[in-house]
Write a sequence for this structure.
């Protein structure tokens, strides 16, 4: 039966490639000028000039039918590799994969993608890359040449090239490829040297998200969080902020609310930690990182999540915990009659308008969008104009909080809702990794793929673990979300999934 499964997966990959080819052929300018899928070797910089054909080729990747085919290819390849690879070798692959993350974090922090962008497709020798990395560091924080050498740098870059995140053009000469170019902020080297703290301003937030997730990857301490006896023998001494501090021996007997609290030896939760004055850079980066998470879903998903066109003129959308307004600005741009109020903590509200640069300057200056500071664990306060919100939006908010805290947020919104107010929640809705009569499936009944698309959906299951370790929170299943809503006075009546994805928008009514 194993060879039958391998052949079925092979067919699945071939069928999905054929589907992609048909999509590109249907959109080709002419029968003699076929659109090709974007090349892995060719960078795609968001701010660089691009031909109409190449632009269309990039845009088609986000076509819903193309996304389904892409996810089937990824899922089938992952399942095929799991079957044929040697288990012991695969175990070590997982154990050492943390070092790939550390290489990615270094490349982002050292501005290497921006350095390689300047040199073009021919690449740059590692000695020259090394000189640029040193040149871009602050004068008072120059790397020790005995530690950061060009030889060690070459080893780091070669890991990423081997994993198809860079291209080694010739020995020790490296260039960006399409995957690494997604990390580009568009900033010039002069800008990065003069104002490194502005690296993420007016960007899509992906670089900020990578830096933030890599730096606060506390899942390595999940075992110590779960098992105090392991903690006692492995927890090193570390400095603490926001607490009086504890010794490793003391820590073994303490019940920490999250792995984050254990790793950073603090009583503060993650958001309180970000508000510390010494974490100002992390705080601003986090706001941009939330913009970057919108790249995990299609920009059009929020527009298809709710029938915005049915709202009356001057309808009010309140984006609760909306950060710098990533999702609601997309709605405001598409529907000029909608008024938007973004609610978040004071530090976020203070920096939000400036975070966008010129991208949404016209909408912001028109007054159609505004920000107000609010703690969503307190009662919802009426808007200054007295209007009742037509829609409350909670996009990637509830997955930041455990059930009791999420219930409090939802109950306060229920108290502020009118009879016709709608609640729109954007979060992942996880599926089991097996067939179940009680759960939906992302694949056909006779598909050899896992019902949740396996590797193609793994990112969201890893985010679930990240939320647990960082915030004691979680991504939820459909039944968990419906029960949570019922307990807070709301009734889910519509669920729209992104095609072939676990990402979803749930619309609820007050009860």
């Amino acid at each position: 039966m194993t060879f039958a499964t391998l052949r079925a997966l092979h067919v699945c990959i071939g069928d999905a490639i054929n589907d992609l080819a048909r999509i590109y052929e249907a959109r080709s300018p002419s029968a003699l000028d076929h659109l090709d899928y974007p090349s892995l070797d060719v960078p795609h910089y968001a701010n660089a000039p691009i031909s109409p054909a190449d632009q269309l080729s990039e845009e088609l990747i986000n076509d819903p039918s193309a996304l389904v085919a892409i996810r089937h290819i990824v899922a089938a390849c992952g399942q095929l590799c799991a079957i044929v690879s040697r288990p012991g070798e695969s175990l070590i692959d997982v154990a050492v994969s943390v070092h790939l993350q550390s290489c990615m974090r270094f490349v982002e922090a050292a501005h290497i993608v921006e350095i390689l962008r300047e040199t073009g497709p021919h690449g740059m020798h590692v000695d020259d890359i090394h000189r640029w990395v040193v040149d871009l560091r602050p004068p008072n924080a120059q790397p020790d040449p005995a530690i950061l050498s060009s030889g060690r740098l070459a080893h780091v870059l070669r890991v990423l090239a081997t994993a198809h995140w860079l291209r080694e053009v010739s020995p020790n000469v490296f260039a960006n490829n399409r995957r690494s170019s997604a990390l580009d902020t568009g900033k010039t080297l002069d800008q990065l040297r003069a104002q490194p703290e502005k690296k993420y301003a007016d960007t899509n937030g992906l670089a900020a998200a990578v830096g933030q997730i890599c730096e606060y990857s506390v899942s390595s301490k999940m075992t110590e969080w779960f098992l105090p006896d392991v903690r006692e023998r492995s927890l090193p001494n570390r400095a603490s902020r926001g607490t009086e501090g504890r010794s490793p021996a003391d820590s073994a007997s303490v019940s920490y609310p999250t792995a984050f609290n254990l790793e950073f030896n603090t009583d503060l939760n993650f958001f309180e930690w970000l508000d510390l004055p010494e974490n100002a850079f992390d705080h601003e980066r986090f706001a941009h990182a939330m913009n970057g998470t919108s790249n995990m879903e299609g920009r059009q998903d929020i527009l298809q999540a709710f029938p915005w066109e049915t709202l009356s003129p001057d309808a009010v959308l309140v984006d609760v915990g909306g950060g710098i307004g990533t999702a609601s600005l997309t709605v405001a741009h598409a529907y000029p009659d909608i008024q938007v109020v973004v609610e978040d903590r004071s530090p976020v509200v203070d920096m939000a308008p400036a975070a966008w640069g010129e991208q949404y300057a016209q909408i912001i200056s028109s007054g159609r969008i505004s920000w107000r500071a609010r703690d969503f664990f307190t009662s919802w306060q009426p808007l200054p104009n007295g209007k009742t919100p037509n829609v409350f939006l909670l996009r990637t908010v509830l997955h930041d909080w455990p059930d009791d805290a999420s219930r409090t947020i939802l109950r306060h919104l229920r108290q502020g809702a009118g009879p016709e107010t709608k609640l729109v929640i954007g979060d992942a809705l996880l599926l089991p990794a097996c067939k179940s009569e009680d759960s939906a499936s992302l694949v056909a009944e006779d598909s050899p793929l896992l019902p949740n698309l396996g590797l193609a959906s793994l990112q969201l299951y890893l985010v679930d673990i990240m939320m647990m370790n960082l915030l004691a929170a979680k991504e939820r299943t459909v039944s968990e979300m419906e029960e949570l809503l019922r307990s807070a006075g709301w009734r889910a009546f519509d669920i729209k999934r992104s095609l072939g994805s676990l990402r979803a928008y749930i619309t609820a009514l007050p009860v």
